[in-house]
Design a protein that fits this description.
This protein is mostly helical. The protein has two domains: about 190 residues, Growth Hormone, Chain: A, CATH 1.20.1250; about 200 residues, MFS general substrate transporter like domains (Growth Hormone, Chain: A, Up-down Bundle), CATH 1.20.1250.20. Helices cover about 80% and strands about 0% of the residues. Helix 1 runs antiparallel to helix 2 and helix 1 runs antiparallel to helix 4. About 45% of the residues are buried.
């Protein structure tokens, strides 16, 4: 039985702008995310410059993603059973050292492919560890009634970094190869310093009935709670369909003879839409139930993805991507809220990383399938195929009464 003494101490309810711990986490992670976006663009360029091989350039990202997926479930267990602030500090320290090693290699003209692939593996391994720890820290320092607002600010940070990072990375790389790595290393160090000054409330563990500390407990939680099970499956399909859209749209534009500048501006529509969509999170969450919101976002996504197949040029693709991006923040915050409010505290880390792992598997499968589709079909046919897959998943979800009728859980539902 859970008693009041075993519950997490509630953080003081002050405006988020005056919540010192949240602002440290938000600012530090914002800079770190900007740095990561910078090097996500630059690393493939450096690999291409070193090897001259597009395949090896793609191998960098594939290595990082594969290691992140493998590390996801163990990372969740560590986040549940160890000091989350310490884990965040470890992640930022490792990322700063790894990036600095590349910076030093570039300065000495000693950069090699094995070194870069090792960095990809190291960064991929610590990413889910620090990411899940930071999410749980946000939950610990933000009062329950402010959780939606805090997660919305997280979305603002993510989309702002996604919008500004690639262009800044290209500018720095064009100026000097070392500059993007210097900027990224500094961003990780600043995030590390911010983490050092975070003072979360003392964690008071709630006793569990079965003492379940298995690494796969997060997946079990996602499967056990019906709304989490169905929404996770739907989100995985949505991610599998959405992740390869960038590749497919680039193929469409390239085949139409668009310039690199036009391609960049068109793809920016998705990031701008995501940033603009953060202002819709609170209104949509206030007016719609979780099931209705998920189905509405899925329905609009089907229509907008299908609209990408229409041959109206880059401006049309940019508008469709912008509109598609508008729903992203609401869907991600919806899933975060459901996890945080329905999963016991001692299993939230594993559940968050299990959810991200499922999405990662969906993204990987979607990228692989879309590559095969584009190779054997026209880009327009590939887009319509992706839209059809999502429409089928949407139809299955609409037919499920439990999804249609689910209500927002209260903060206390996971504490009984």
């Amino acid at each position: 039985m859970v008693t009041p003494e075993t519950l997490d101490p509630a953080p003081a309810e002050v405006p988020l702008r005056r919540n010192r711990n949240f602002q440290l986490l938000w600012s530090g992670s914002g800079l770190a995310l900007l740095g990561r976006e910078i090097t996500d663009l630059v690393y493939p360029l450096v690999v291409l410059a070193v090897t001259g091989s597009p395949a090896w350039a793609g191998a960098f990202g594939a290595t990082q993603m594969a290691v992140s997926l493998l590390a996801g479930l163990p990372a969740g267990k560590l986040a549940d059973t160890h000091d989350q602030r310490l884990l965040l500090i470890i992640m930022e320290t490792v990322r700063a050292i790894a990036t600095t090693s590349v910076l030093v290699a570039v300065l000495h003209d000693a950069i090699t492919l094995p070194h870069l692939l090792a960095v990809a593996a190291i960064v991929g391994a610590v990413q889910p560890l620090g990411g899940s720890a930071r999410m749980l820290l946000v939950r610990a320092v933000v009062p329950p009634r402010q959780l939606t607002a805090a997660l919305t600010q997280e979305e603002v940070r993510s989309h702002a970094a996604a919008l500004g990072g690639p262009s800044l990375g290209g500018l720095l790389y064009a100026t000097a190869t070392v500059l993007p790595f210097l900027a990224t290393a500094v961003s990780f160090v600043v995030s590390l310093v911010c983490a050092l000054f975070v003072r979360p409330p003392a964690r008071a563990r709630k006793p569990t009935v079965d003492g379940d500390r298995r690494m796969l407990a997060g997946l079990a939680q996602l499967w056990k709670v019906p709304i989490l099970r169905h929404s996770t499956m739907f989100a995985a399909v949505l991610n599998a369909v959405s992740a390869p859209l960038v590749l497919v749209v680039i193929v469409v534009l390239t085949r139409d003879g668009a310039s690199p500048g036009t391609v960049g501006l068109t793809m920016a529509g998705l990031a701008v839409g995501g940033l603009a969509g953060t202002v819709l999170v609170r209104p949509l969450h206030d007016r719609l139930t979780p099931g209705a919101l998920m189905l509405w976002l899925g329905g609009t996504a089907v229509l907008l993805i299908a609209a990408l197949s229409l041959p109206f040029g880059a401006w049309w693709l940019a508008i469709a991507l912008f509109l598609l991006g508008l729903g992203g923040p609401s869907m991600r915050v919806l899933m975060d809220i459901l996890i945080f409010r329905q999963v016991p505290d001692e299993q939230r880390g594993r559940t968050v990383t299990a959810f991200m792992t499922v999405l990662g598997v969906g993204s990987s499968a979607g990228m692989l399938a879309s590559g095969l589709l584009v190779e054997h079909l026209s880009a327009q046919a590939a887009i319509l195929t992706l839209a059809t897959v999502l429409a089928i998943a949407l139809g299955v979800s609409i037919s499920d009464r439990r999804i249609r009728s689910v209500q927002w859980p209260t903060e206390t539902e996971n504490r009984s």
